[in-house]
Protein: Xanthine dehydrogenase YagR molybdenum-binding subunit
Organism: Pseudoduganella lurida
Amino acid sequence: QAVMKKAVEHAPDALIPGGIADPLIARGDPLIGAPVSRVDGPLKVRGEARFAAEIPLAGMTYAALVYSTVPKGRIADIDTTAAEAAPGVVFVMTHRNAPKMNKVPVFLSKPKAAGGADLPVFQDDQVHWNGQPVAIVLAETQEQADHAKSLVRVTYETAEAVTSLAAAKARGSKTGVFQGEPLKVESGDAEAALVAAPFQVDAVYSTPRHSHNAIELHAATLAWDGDELRVHDAVQGVAHTAWSLAQVFGIREEQVHITSPFVGGGFGGKALWQHQVLAAAASKVSGRPVRIVLSREGVYRVVGGRTLTEQRVAIGAQADGRFDALIHTGLAVMTEHNNMPEPFIMPAKCLYGVGAFHLEVQAAQMDMIANTFMRAPGESVGSFGLESAIDELADRLGIDPIELRRRNEPAKDPTTGTPFSSRYLLEAYRAGAERFGWEARTLPRMRRDGEWLIGMGCATATYPYYRMPGGAARLTLTPDGRVHAEVAAHEMGMGTATVQSQLIAARLGVPLDQVTFDYADTKFPGVILAGGSQQTASIGRSIIAAQDALFADLLALAGEKSPLAGLKPDEVRARDGGLCSIADPSRFESYGALMGRTGRTAIQVEGKAPPPLELAHWSMHSYGAIFCEVRVSQVTGETRVNRLLGSFDCGRILNAKTATSQFRGGMIMGLGMALLEETQFDERNGRIMNPNLSDYHVAAHLDVPEIDVIWTDIPDPHAPAGARGIGEIGITGTAAAVANAVYNACGIRVRDLPITLDKLM
Ligand code: MOS
């Protein structure tokens, strides 16, 4: 919002309500939406895609980290002599011999800040969480480093730590601040309206900590060349990480060169954590290149996860279902050194038309690893509380839960009063209900198959449309009609390069195989985060800007003899490897002919995306309806998901194949959140007790049924290419849909995740 305010102040003329629609929205180009297979697919299937941990450097050393075993205090003594004498050890670094480094800029504190926390790294003897790195060992092989780290002896002077939720609450909480704004919305007297309403639900829903478990472990391979740092990293923001590392080492951002061509899953966790800082520092002192790959345990200790929440959701309603009051308040736990009070009120801000609201996140502090962003931070856990409460109210009122939502569908954004850019949530519900067979749903405990009780549930999914400032792109066109794009964006497996190639081919009127898309390199333009489900819009708008520059350059070459003579950039469009007049498409000249006239061998342009003014005019969100059927064993209490369907309204879908995977992946993560995922945190000492995939359960193949995915495909007139984000929405709504189905199956309402069998017996 702060960015928006500034943008409006600086460019009031740019505020054209309705904006200028992207011409691609109206075009029925067959490439848009086509289920094109990922361009990086063959490389990955053949094992030829080089990830950060697979880059070899001459003279490379391998790193291992030693983690603190106390939650707070100081390092009284650290003995590294045995480790230093171990075979193959090159260097052991602790706070005693680390170079001077500045604090890591914590995410959201500055536009390009990428750090998970703003703590100093190895600058003093202080311990801030149980698991904090206290030593880094470099050795000639990974095995030697792992052995040597076991020889480091640390003694601590412990200080009193806040490691239980009760202690954190006792210390007090205050309204969380997220992206510079307090997480609080109040309108009318919600408590009074709740009490006055004839029907109410008022319950507390809780969600546990979750840890990041991308398939690819966090990894970096790096080396210094004088004052220049070269990093092969696995990150979601190369520009952000380079700038932040430059701040830490007191150098210019151009002196840090990061590439990150393949990322094996990010989900918000692939940012700048201590491992890259420590590897770079140890490399600087030792003079040797370093490869650091966090172990699975290391990811739990060094990389933050999603925090726990306790949410009160209270709804007051009339007998016809209309809401008088909506209260969604509660607590999220964070640390003093990060910026992430899990904003679980986001869904309640936009989903229902209500007279009186009170939405607020209170943040309390604990001594733990800094919690961080994880796929749909806020929305995923917030939609569990909100959409469970809606289901409880529907049950109490005897109204079908979809009908109840329909009766409270707002005409405009209920908290800001802004019109929606495009919202077809009810259409998503209609289509989803029909395909899922929702009419077969019964009252609770009415369907049985042997020991299994069977039930259906649904819930709303939602995630905001964002477009962060800073987008830029470079295009190079050659006379043969080949287009090469360069953007500092990221491919974490979601299909970025494929979808952007499709869009560029459609925009420039060339076949798909004549487009190459290169990315994730700090030498390319753009400050683009693969986060907030906004990368596609951010790149898309940057490409439009570059295309405008390209058309202007091409027309400047046209001259008197060209069929395009006298046309202005907004009077032409691309087709068949050239430009034509929009008014008279027979006035056409190919790129080759245009460039040949002056003997140009290539045209290179750069475009900068304008500020995201669409967000000042419109309430923009992706929506979906999640449907779930479960069976619950009356013998063991075990829940199995029989069927899952997602019906989405996210604007135009740009690639049916990659989009389906994004939606499915999100829903699988939601299923895991509903039934399995929980970071177990020892409240006596702040230690994560299950830092591995055998004790921390993520959904595996046998947990996941066939997942059906459909969408409205209605373009959003205010988003580039008509497409809103799809990366995170799948996880939202899913946990509530599962919980609502469990209730429908067996009549037990579980309000604290995960829904394990002990809660159903
Ligand atoms: Mo996401 S949590 O915006 O990578």
Notes: The pocket of dioxothiomolybdenum(VI) ion is lined by residues 236, 266-268, 373-375, 377, 531-532 (CB under 6 Å). The CA atoms of residues 33 and 654 lie 4 Å apart. The chain has 20 helices and 32 strands.
